[in-house]
Amino acid sequence: MINKTAAEGFKNNTDHYLAGRAEFPHEVAGFFKNQFKITNETKILDLAAGTGKFTKLLSENTDAQIEAVEPLNSMAEVFKKELPGVKLTDGTAESIPFADKSFDLVTVSQAFHWFDAPKAIREIYRVLKPKGTLAIIWNNKDRRVPWVLKFDDILDKEMGKIPQFRTSNWKEAFLDERYFDKLQLKTFNHSPIYTLDLVKSRVLSISYVALLNNEKKQKTLNEIKTLIDKTPETKDPSFPFPHVVEVYWSQVRRSLSSKQRSI
Question: Which residues, 6+ apart, have CB-to-CB distance to 219 below 8 Å?
């Protein structure tokens, strides 16, 4: 059930993922606490938790009861080192290893585009309580900034046809109105500080870049370095890298029978 590019691409690049992927701004945690009324009784499942970047934000800034699911061993090993106090279970979005109506909130950060969305939505619906919520979070480069768009243009040359969050194809599964209400959206702009080494890690953290042969990988890195060297905004050894966090959320629409939930 795991996408082959994700499984192979993230197998040996977890160090780059941990270093190069931007952290989440703390205001996102504040938004979650207020919007979803998170208390010490709130049960949250962080699905496809990866190395635990978003799980860590929730764990350090809320009193919620948090569990996580991650199917890739390479990611899970890092998660356990980073968040030894959070229970991590092996599983996938299409087959969540928890009972019906177990959670108040399910979060998915940087991963929903890898799912078989219709199956995942039914499973997420199944494990949510009747008034539960699904939140899908993206923390990505801000392509409204010209040099960042050029950055992505370099990477896109090697992308192929793998699933991408920005195609918005993942939203199509929400047109099935049996499970969730219409998606709502909140955005947050932030500019974490990067160096050239961190930019390199950011590039190598990408699944399809990690799978390139050494020649193509080095060519991509060289093009990125040339862009960074020639861009006025990135001329200093440390520079802001514009990102935007998009939080989509939707509440469970209505109750289905136990039989319908299991279909």
Answer: none
